[in-house]
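ingest -> validate -> predict -> emit
validate: passed (alphabet ok, no gaps, 160 aa)
predict: started
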Amino acid sequence: MLEIIARGLQNQDGHARSQIGAIYRRLGYDELEPLLPAVLEAIEQPAPSGEMFADGVRLNGLRVLAQHHIEEGMQACADYLRTQNPWASENRTPEILQILQAYGAHAQRILPHLRETAALFEKGEQNFPKHLSERKAKAVREAIEKIEAAQDRPDLRRLN
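emit:
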């Protein structure tokens, strides 16, 4: 079964991948652990087709990495925040930032990346409404404040 899920995460269609990503919630950590490298890859490498639906598997992957405090998930959140499909990104941005905040004070190492991202959003994104980019920049800055104030340090796990 795990092999089927891993292969599904490599499907060339973003919608198909997102259907696979919904399975994460049904698996315990011991079941998920061997899949986590494939989950991270599905976040980092979007499907070449079905781009409009590809965000589901990426968000679900980020959630599962954060839920289990997988260290590599912090950078994956920060990278996806910046490289996500602009379509409806003003709605996904707060979700991604909330996922990142699950890492508590550990996410402070990502702050320089977040500051750069906020500045990029503030300048405006190509072919994206300026007021929505500014909304995203504001959300990133608010998350930065929360991460700076974070005290909790959950035990992190690393992918092998």
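The chain is about 60% helix and 0% strand.
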